[in-house]
């Protein structure tokens, strides 16, 4: 290593001494040895020079050493890699990979997929708009929507911002390919240059998706609120695009590690708390309420929210500029998990998708349950229920918060459906279904260990059915929290009665739908599907995918018949009770299917074998 005095420090090991004749002649072996010393690499000198003194004698004039070092450094400077050439090579390889992928695509099939997808979205938008109806809200309801609508929209943006920050702490939202992580990020190219193209793609796709969803929401709002439909769609698209840009920009800045992550997370939580306080009515204003006002521009127009739109654009641009600080280790972990997640999705393996999503979110259960001390007699009589309760006690706080938010979101959606926005029933059912997938974790763990399940003295179906009791209690508890929130917003005896009925039906069907998804086997072998005609295979896959969430949606439909009876001037409680009975019967059938599923499959297999 060169010193400031112009001399060279020699090491005690004899292999790092170079003889004067080698340095004077600048032989290839001396150059290679010096290059190894200066770079800290192993000595590449051939072993035939000397065994005791591999590089020459033990004495060497310092002038010759400096001359040799200068020659090696000059040679390295001439042979150094040009970053611009490396970037050009990267662009060429990416272009070649894109052309190869495009060449493998059947353009007719791709055009047909785009056509069918666009047609399905259009039909859904028209159907949803017609389902909402075109009867405008009353004057009092319009005033309430104009006052509280931006506050709720700001709360939604705060949740989206927090999710973006949490994704950034785990190297999100970019999901790189393995070749980009293991080669390009380690190449002599600027990381910002490598990551900018995929980051721009993520920002563009996210903003476009947000604008599309916002335009749809605006179209639905135009059915109940005064104003032109085009104005509502335009304001909704601007709101959705700004919210997506704000969330993705915050995620990129967090992932870049240029700003301390605790400060960003603290700011995100502070904005969320401010929005919650504003929704509760204890604060007249929250920062993100300004962005929520954009969605309701047709009712009240103001240019002040454009400040937050500009801030969202600035965050997205800054995130693209400093994305080069991404952690390679976190990027490798995210790339591996996302690759496995995509494969699990293609195989329709929902259980693997859930496990990989939890790993991607870094969710780790507690080492000790919060309910470890349970009565011994109770545990002896109900061992499965006791194990489930202890399992719930090991939930991380992130999962507890997620299930609580999903339950409150479902309650608010049902309150919106009670107010007349019928399509919110679908969103409420999906929220309960996703919460049920979290609550059904003890059953899923049992299914994941079939050998342990077979070793129990009880039949496997009986054990699986007993695992459904505790999740129903948890879902009822979550539903009661949502019912309390709705009662605070609208104190009424009918709300309490109809809400209690809906909580019971929604809790049982949410667990039933989640159990269908968990207990059903993943489609890893397409051999049976290959024997079926295409007319049967397609509907079979669709029914298999949509049936579990549909069961959860059925559980929240008592609110619809009660709302209809209320509109006609009748008592809403008897119709809700009447519909609740067949819903509970459906949930009971699913619970019995979980118990006797293996026996039914075995019987059908034996019958098919005997027939063949």
From TrEMBL:
Q: Where are the transmembrane segments?
A: 110-128, 148-165, 199-220, 232-254, 266-283, 303-326, 400-418, 468-489, 495-520, 573-594
Q: Does the keyword Membrane apply?
A: yes
Keywords from the named record = Membrane, Transmembrane, Transmembrane helix
> Does the UniProt entry include the keyword Lipid biosynthesis?
no
Segments of this protein annotated with the region Disordered: 38-61
* Name of the protein in question: Unannotated protein
List the source organism: freshwater metagenome
